[in-house]
């Protein structure tokens, strides 16, 4: 009877350790408050929400704490396009071009965006 309790206790402990180790995995990219700020901007589209979203993009590009330590895919394109819409076309195109440098597989997509901006 005593062995059975010890066996049950050990197996329970093993399962708890196994599941707790799975929960500590970190993500490849850190997104910060990106989702909430993008949602707020598209919902409200006020100067305050635009300023907050711009700050979020700057933080996202400058401070990466994810496993890879690089900006998430698409972040440079989104920020660059937002800058172009605000009239900062040169800086926006530079950001969009950085996306292609960081993620070469996005070249076709990025080239189409650049072509549409140069029309």
Give the gist of this structure:
The chain is mainly α and 119 residues long. It has helices at residues 2-22, 34-44, 47-62, 75-85, 89-102, 107-117.
Folded structure, characterized:
This protein has helices at 2-22, 34-44, 47-62, 75-85, 89-102, 107-117. By secondary structure, the chain is mainly alpha-helical. It has a single domain (29-117), classed as Serine Threonine Protein Phosphatase 5, Tetratricopeptide repeat (Alpha Horseshoe). The longest helix has 21 residues, at 2-22. The mean pLDDT is 83.
Please describe the structure with a list of short key phrases separated by commas or semicolons:
single chain, 119 residues, mainly alpha, Serine Threonine Protein Phosphatase 5, Tetratricopeptide repeat, 0% strand, globular
Helix content: over 70%
CATH topology: Serine Threonine Protein Phosphatase 5, Tetratricopeptide repeat
Bin the strand percentage.
under 5%
Low-confidence stretches: none
Terminal Cα separation, in Å?
81 Å
The CATH architecture assignment turns out to be Alpha Horseshoe
Count of helical segments?
Answer: 6
**Structural shape:** globular
Number of domains: 1
SSE order and pairing:
Layout: H1 2-22, H2 34-44, H3 47-62, H4 75-85, H5 89-102, H6 107-117
Helix pairs in contact: 2-3, 3-4, 4-5, 5-6
């Amino acid at each position: 009877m005593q062995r059975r309790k010890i066996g049950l206790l050990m197996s329970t402990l093993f399962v708890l350790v196994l599941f707790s180790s799975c929960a500590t995995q970190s993500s490849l990219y850190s997104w910060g408050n990106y989702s909430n700020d993008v949602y707020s901007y598209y919902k409200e589209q006020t100067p305050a929400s635009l300023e907050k979203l711009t700050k979020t993009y700057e933080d996202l590009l400058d401070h990466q704490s994810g496993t890879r330590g690089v900006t998430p895919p698409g972040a440079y394109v989104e920020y660059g396009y937002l800058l172009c819409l605000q009239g900062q076309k040169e800086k926006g195109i530079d950001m969009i071009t950085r996306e292609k440098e960081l993620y070469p597989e996005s070249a076709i997509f990025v080239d189409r965006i650049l072509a549409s901006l140069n029309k």
